[in-house]
Specification:
Number of domains: 1
Number of helices: 7
CATH architecture: 3-Layer(aba) Sandwich
Strand order of the largest sheet: 1-2-3-4
Mean pLDDT: 91
Structural class: alpha/beta
Shape: globular
Radius of gyration: 17 Å
CATH topology: Rossmann fold
């Protein structure tokens, strides 16, 4: 990435759920002496766990990454946001779904959706927009990791149930996120953009 973009990119390895890591990220932003045009809170994590198998550690890991991680990211970003800045938060169709053994993840994403709507109202007087992108099943290592013993079979089964017969590509989700931080979406805040490959119509 540095080879392609040079000093325009500052890569920082950080855990969004850890306040110290987030502080490091935004200390680097402060050093650059400029505000932020756009922020994408994209932290995501979860496992298949049936109700009777969910542990306190599972709860902390899932809500820590998805809810606390998103909250800490936006808290850190606020001092650097200005009029016409745009924020995108990654949600999930699981927030309104009933996939067996995926309730903990879905609940964490439902919490993120509720928080984002409230934050949109809070940030609107500053001229800052915040929207949620809601992707469906996407071909990523994280999705494959939900079935480590036989990921290919799980991905094929998921794809077969979608109208186009395939999973979303990360590039398709990224393009939608770019739309939400662009001037083309200047009239949107507090919105949820569904990008699910038609998953909601089957």
């Amino acid at each position: 990435m540095r080879d392609e973009f040079g000093d325009a990119v500052t890569p920082i390895r950080a855990d969004a759920a850890q306040q110290a890591d987030i502080a490091t990220v935004f200390a680097a932003v402060a050093e650059r002496g400029r505000g932020l045009d756009a922020v994408h809170a994209n932290a995501d994590g979860g496992e298949f766990e049936a109700l009777d198998a969910v542990t306190a550690e599972d709860f902390e890991a899932t809500f820590g990454t998805n809810v606390r991680g998103t909250t800490l990211t936006l808290q850190g970003a606020v001092p650097f946001l200005r009029e016409e800045s745009a924020v995108v938060v990654t949600g999930s169709t699981a927030a309104s779904g009933t996939e067996p053994s995926f309730g903990l993840y879905g609940a964490s994403k439902a919490a993120v959706a509720a928080l984002t709507r409230t934050w949109a109202a809070e940030l609107a007087p500053l001229g800052v927009r915040i929207n949620t992108i809601v992707p469906g099943p996407t071909e990523t290592p994280g999705l494959a990791g939900l079935a480590p013993r036989n990921p290919d079979a799980m991905l094929e089964q998921m794809a077969s149930g979608l109208p186009f017969g395939r999973l979303l590509l990360p590039e398709e989700v990224a393009a939608s996120a770019l739309f939400l931080v662009s001037d083309q979406s200047s009239g949107m805040t507090g919105s949820e953009l569904l990008v699910d490959g038609g998953n909601s119509i089957v």
